[in-house]
Specification:
The chain has one helix and four strands. It is an alpha+beta fold.
Length: 132
């Protein structure tokens, strides 16, 4: 991440992926210079990341058990995380739909080809038997 530094793993705290969370410090050019935050170590890999991102110095966590709910800032982060995940899943779904459509067309074409070849063979055999 440009403009941030990475420190060692955060005191054996684990993210949703099961890996140790990494603490980053925002750099000078960031919106909040010097701000520390925890992030999933797989954040660059779309397929592996759990989307964990939370401030270290903030007095909230994703699930604030003392109040029995979710803080508004944590809820916003959670909503944004799920929006990104939904967007990625929608893209994957569209790719699967297109792939499925192509596969159906190929299957249909193979059956048409097979049928034409069977008809051609039958006609060839019938024509050949008339001359014998």
């Amino acid at each position: 991440m440009a403009g941030s530094s990475r420190s060692s793993s955060a005191s054996s705290k684990r993210c949703g992926c099961g890996d140790e969370v990494v603490i980053y410090t925002a750099g000078r050019r960031a919106k909040n210079p010097g701000k520390r935050f925890r992030r999933c170590p797989n954040w660059k890999d779309v397929n592996r990341s759990c989307g964990l991102f939370e401030g270290v110095d903030d007095d909230y966590s994703i699930t604030d058990l003392s109040e029995g709910g979710v803080s508004s800032h944590a809820a916003e982060l959670l909503v944004e995380t799920y929006k990104v995940k939904i967007s990625k899943l929608q893209i994957k779904l569209e790719i699967e739909r297109k792939t499925s459509s192509v596969m159906k067309k190929l299957l249909l074409m193979s059956w048409v080809f097979f049928s034409v070849m069977c008809i051609w063979c039958l006609l060839k055999c019938q024509c050949g038997s008339q001359f014998v």
